[in-house]
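Bumping my old thread because nobody answered last time. Still need a sequence for this structure:
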């Protein structure tokens, strides 16, 4: 039976407030709205407390309190003394904090107002140049929360951030919010962050950055006069600060203010890199190594040195060094930067044999070889604050080595008071090669990428790659000149002769006259005087490119076809002002490209790859790229250099195209198809893989780098290449094999090698100078070595050209006759082409250009030879502690003996460059006429046709270089070698058969030693030299036979008259039963005691003791002659 629920009121206390709840009763619960509200749930019936229950609860509480007290007493008894001391320190710190509050309140009365504190300047940074105002810094930093700790300048490990808030400037903290009781207080070193370098007095302490913050308006309830500290854990601007630069204050000085002209300032502001000055300088300040990657035209070469100069990197007497791979770039960049700084004396250049460096120099441009040489005397480069490796993408051998050395030097210098900054710059940098951990194991280089060229360049490909790229280049230049708007044209070809040929063709089609009073006359296009144009040539570093390719001048008939197709030039077209540019061109002629172009002419520059980088040729709008370059391919195993015309790399193609966008928008015409371009290598092979490394290995050994193979090369050379170089140096006695601490054999430098490393020459040429000094031949040897070390001192015969064919033939014939005359006769003739070089430099009394050209000499090379002679003389004076070389001796003709000695010195120093004429009777196959065989080549080699020994064909010759001409390998700078010299002068390259003990030895009257003929061969090819006398090994046998020859009078002929009176035959000494005779054993033992087994050793013993061997000798003679022998003893004049 249902019934109606009864309504009921219930009073419930919620949060201490009585609430009246109405509900309906239904079997003990109410759920009218089916709600889960706790306030309307019917509570259970509560028990009423009685007085008895209260007494029980009070007793329970007392029991619990008593238990806690007993537990505390037990714990107090267990506490150690150390813990008690710690607790006492915590209590003491609390008491100090309580009293410190009163102290700061008193000090607050004497604190200056905040607006007055802003006007004060710290004396610690009085001389620092601020780039932005204080208020701007305060405003910029007011909303930023800087990290509280940075890395210590002493290299301490980075400590974990504690999460403490930044401390407001001019404020001292009074208490912690939580009162960290377990950590001791740490006194932080505070420095103001206002764009100034950090200067720390306690480097070992963690660094806290103090930043001024705006007062938090929400903290209105804080005590008046107590500044507030806004705390924020969310803002993280650690990237804004970065790592503290190590010891930056030790290398940077006062900022330098440069006053430039308005024109220079305007031109600099247009460069893409100009806007990046602040970021670049900051990156360099904060990093030891910075890699700057920027394409051609960004301005990095000229601007970055200026950025660092203004930043104060030279204010403390240090230099900013910039290395360039080419001499032309070093000279031109130094001139440009000096002009932009408005202080030419502050910027200098130093190249081989030339430079204008002074005490006022602040920025020094130099070639990489110059800096490498300077590191031999100062490995840490203490004179420099910054080293910039420019054009690193060219990967020259010494730039790679410099980067490897500096990758170790920069971290070492970073630990000193004067750190060194390393900057690697390139237009097309292979970043992976320079950021590898093998190169920089302890640091990570900072990479900066600059904007590309400032003007766009349109690249045009050919639909089909032409077979004759020179003919195509001629046609393209003609079309550009006759059809396109004004602008200079830059044409890239592969070699010097191609430059001359193309210029000759262009001048014939577009002549111009310097006579301003007459109109420029046009003439009909005449047929080229020489229809042949070189397609292949040598590398710029090669020699005699015309001679090498005399038989491979391909027909240039395509030019005639194009000439006829083009027709006559358009009427009224401008003349074409053509200029050459290649490395062998004189500096004076190279500078013509920067001079003003004659009125009414368009500039056309025909250049080799020397114009690819660094140089900014004015007003170039059109680039014609043949896609070819001459590359010297060096085989490290055989030592043969082959000069080939090869396709350039993609990186070089981009560099060449970039030349058109330096001044304005331009066009690049690539004379090859895009498909051929895709087959190009991405980058050219580093030079270190295609060049002899003997000199490099020796220099590195002299620096203490014993294991060259383990050196941090950006691209390591072939291990076989290094091994063969070390073997050659071992045979030169520049190195010797020693045992290291780990019992491994290592080749270490010898005293001779240390001397050779002083010279900027190949070790074999340096050794020629060292040996010649001992024989008073130094002036002559310096002249020969200087001529051998300079590129093309003699003008190539086949490169000589006259106005007519008859005149050209006469020039060539006169040059050949002159060189035949210089070769002389006798020993001078046998010296061969080396005598020609010596007579050539001897014949040039002045360095006049006309005098050099008249004698068939290259003026620039002769100037370098003169400078090298002076440099070598200075090095010899310092390294060998001798006075300067007397060059007056060069005016005298060397004697026959001196010429012979020069030949022998060449054999001692260049034994691996000896070749032997092939005997047709020794081989079964036909042998070409004049064929020779080298030690390391399978192919036959031939004497160059222009050599004075071309028709002589001696059995053994010595050559300077082997180059490939067509299908032949030709030897250059040849001299004659006598076969009998080889066992004595090139002993390390000879193989001697074992000495047969059954044969009796002989006494060599010339050397005064005991010898025995043995079968001898030369080199690994085992060229037979016949039976050669070899000294006996040092054993008992050599002493017995020396005693026999001594008694027989063969050592000293004056003793021969006594042989007939001897008591026994001298040959008894060598018999097996000689021990039975007392006189024989005494004589042999006396020789062994003083190690006398040669004539010279015996004379030296007599100088110490005149009666040496007298008693032993008298034992072989009768008593009747003893008095006479005693009077005549010793039997030679020991005073001589």
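Sorry it took so long. Here it is:
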């Amino acid at each position: 039976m249902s019934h109606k629920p009864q309504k009921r009121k219930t009073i419930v206390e919620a949060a201490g407030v009585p609430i009246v709840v109405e509900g309906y009763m239904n079997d003990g619960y109410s759920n009218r709205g089916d709600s889960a509200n706790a306030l309307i749930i019917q509570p259970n019936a509560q028990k009423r407390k009685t007085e008895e229950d209260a007494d029980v609860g009070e007793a329970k509480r007392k029991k619990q309190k008593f238990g806690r007290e007993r537990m505390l007493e037990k714990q107090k008894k267990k506490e150690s003394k150390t813990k008690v001391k710690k607790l006492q320190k915590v209590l003491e710190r609390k008491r100090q904090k309580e009293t410190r509050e009163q102290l700061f309140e008193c000090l607050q009365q004497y604190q200056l107002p905040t607006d007055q504190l802003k006007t004060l300047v710290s004396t610690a940074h009085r001389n620092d140049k601020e780039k932005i105002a204080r208020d701007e810094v305060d405003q910029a930093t007011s909303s930023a929360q800087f990290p509280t700790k940075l890395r210590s300048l002493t290299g301490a490990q980075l400590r974990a951030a504690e999460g403490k808030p930044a401390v407001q400037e001019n404020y001292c903290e009074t208490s912690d919010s939580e009162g960290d009781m377990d950590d001791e207080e740490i006194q932080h070193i505070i420095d103001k962050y206002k764009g100034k370098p950090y200067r720390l007095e306690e480097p070992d302490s963690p660094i806290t950055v103090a930043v001024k913050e705006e007062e938090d308006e929400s903290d209105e309830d804080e005590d008046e006069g107590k500044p507030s500290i806004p705390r924020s854990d969310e803002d993280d601007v650690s990237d804004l600060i970065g790592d503290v630069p190590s010891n930056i204050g030790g290398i940077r000085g006062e900022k330098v203010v440069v006053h430039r002209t308005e024109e220079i300032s305007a031109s600099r502001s247009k460069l893409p890199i100009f806007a990046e000055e602040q970021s670049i300088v900051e990156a360099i300040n904060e990093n030891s190594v910075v890699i700057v990657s920027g394409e051609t035209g960004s301005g990095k070469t000229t601007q970055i040195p200026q950025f660092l100069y203004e930043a104060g990197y030279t204010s403390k007497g240090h230099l900013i060094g910039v290395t360039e791979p080419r001499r032309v770039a070093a000279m031109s960049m130094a001139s440009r930067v000096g002009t932009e700084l408005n202080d030419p004396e502050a910027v200098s250049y130093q190249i081989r044999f030339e430079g204008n460096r002074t005490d006022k120099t602040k920025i020094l441009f130099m070639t990489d070889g110059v800096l490498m040489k300077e590191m031999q005397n100062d490995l840490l480069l203490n004179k420099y604050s910054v080293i910039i490796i420019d054009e690193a993408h060219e990967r020259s051998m010494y730039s790679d080595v410099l980067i490897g050395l500096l990758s170790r030097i920069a971290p070492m210098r970073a630990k000193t008071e004067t750190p060194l900054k390393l900057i690697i710059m390139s237009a097309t940098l292979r970043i992976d090669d320079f950021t590898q951990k093998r190169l920089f194991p302890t640091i990570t280089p900072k990479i900066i990428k600059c904007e590309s060229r400032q003007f766009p360049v349109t690249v045009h490909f050919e639909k089909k790659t032409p077979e004759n790229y020179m003919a195509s280049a001629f046609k393209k230049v003609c079309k550009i000149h006759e059809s396109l708007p004004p602008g200079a044209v830059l044409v890239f070809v592969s070699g010097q002769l191609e430059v001359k040929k193309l210029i000759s063709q262009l001048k014939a089609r577009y002549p111009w006259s310097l006579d301003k009073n007459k109109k420029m006359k046009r003439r009909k296009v005449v047929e080229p005087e020489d229809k042949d144009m070189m397609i292949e040539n040598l590398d710029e570093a090669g020699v005699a490119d015309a001679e090498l390719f005399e038989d491979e001048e391909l027909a240039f008939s395509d030019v005639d076809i194009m000439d006829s197709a083009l027709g006559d030039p358009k009427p009224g077209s401008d003349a074409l002002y053509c200029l050459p540019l290649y490395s062998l061109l004189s500096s004076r002629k190279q500078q013509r490209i920067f001079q003003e172009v004659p009125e009414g002419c368009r500039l056309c520059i025909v250049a080799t790859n020397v114009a690819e980088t660094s140089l900014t040729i004015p007003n170039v709008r059109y680039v014609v790229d043949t896609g070819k370059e001459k590359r010297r391919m060096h085989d490290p195993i055989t030592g043969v250099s082959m000069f080939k015309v090869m396709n350039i790399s993609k990186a070089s193609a981009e560099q060449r195209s970039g030349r058109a966008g330096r001044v304005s928008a331009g066009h690049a015409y690539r004379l090859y198809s895009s498909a051929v371009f895709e087959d190009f290598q991405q980058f050219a092979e580093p030079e270190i893989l295609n060049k002899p490394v003997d000199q490099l290995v020796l220099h590195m050994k002299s620096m203490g780098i014993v294991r060259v193979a383990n050196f941090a090369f950006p691209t390591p050379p072939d291990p076989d290449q290094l091994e063969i170089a070390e073997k050659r140096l071992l045979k030169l006695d520049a190195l010797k094999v020693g045992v290291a601490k780990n019992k491994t054999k290592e080749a270490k430098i010898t005293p001779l090698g240390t001397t050779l490393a002083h010279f900027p020459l190949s070790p074999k040429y340096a050794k020629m100078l060292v040996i010649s000094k001992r024989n008073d031949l130094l002036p002559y040897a310096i002249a020969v070595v200087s001529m051998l070390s300079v590129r093309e001192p003699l003008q190539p015969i086949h490169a000589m050209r006259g106005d007519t064919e008859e005149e050209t033939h006469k020039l060539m014939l006169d040059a050949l006759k002159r060189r035949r005359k210089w070769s002389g006769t006798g020993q001078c003739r046998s010296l061969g082409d080396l005598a020609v070089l010596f007579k050539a430099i001897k014949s040039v009394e002045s360095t006049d250009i006309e005098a050099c050209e008249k004698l068939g000499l290259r003026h620039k090379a002769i100037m370098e030879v003169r400078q090298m002679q002076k440099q070598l003389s200075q090095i010899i004076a310092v390294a060998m502690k001798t006075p300067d070389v007397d060059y007056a001796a060069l005016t005298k003709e060397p004697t026959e003996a001196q010429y012979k000695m020069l030949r022998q010195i060449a054999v001692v120093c260049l034994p691996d460059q000896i070749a032997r004429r092939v005997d047709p009777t020794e081989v079964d196959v036909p042998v070409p006429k004049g064929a020779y065989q080298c030690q390391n080549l399978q192919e036959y080699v031939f004497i160059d046709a222009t050599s004075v020994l071309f028709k002589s064909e001696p059995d053994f010759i010595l050559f300077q270089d082997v180059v490939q001409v067509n299908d032949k390998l030709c030897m250059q700078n040849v001299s004659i070698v006598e076969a009998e010299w080889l066992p004595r002068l090139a002993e390390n390259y000879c193989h001697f058969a074992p000495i047969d003990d059954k044969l009796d030895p002989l006494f060599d009257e010339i050397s005064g030693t005991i010898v025995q003929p043995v079968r001898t061969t030369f080199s690994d090819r085992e060229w037979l030299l016949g039976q050669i006398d070899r000294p006996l090994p040092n054993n008992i046998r050599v002493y017995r036979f020396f005693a026999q020859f001594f008694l027989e009078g063969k050592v000293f002929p004056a003793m021969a008259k006594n042989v007939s009176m001897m008591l026994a035959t001298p040959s008894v000494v060598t018999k097996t039963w000689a021990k039975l005779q007392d006189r024989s054993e005494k004589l042999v033992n006396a020789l062994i005691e003083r190690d006398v087994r040669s004539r010279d050793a015996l004379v030296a013993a007599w100088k110490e003791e005149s009666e040496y061997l007298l008693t032993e000798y008298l034992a072989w003679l009768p008593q009747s002659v003893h008095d006479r022998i005693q009077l005549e003893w010793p039997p030679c004049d020991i005073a001589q």
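Residues 51-78 form the longest helix (28 residues). Let me know if any region looks off to you.
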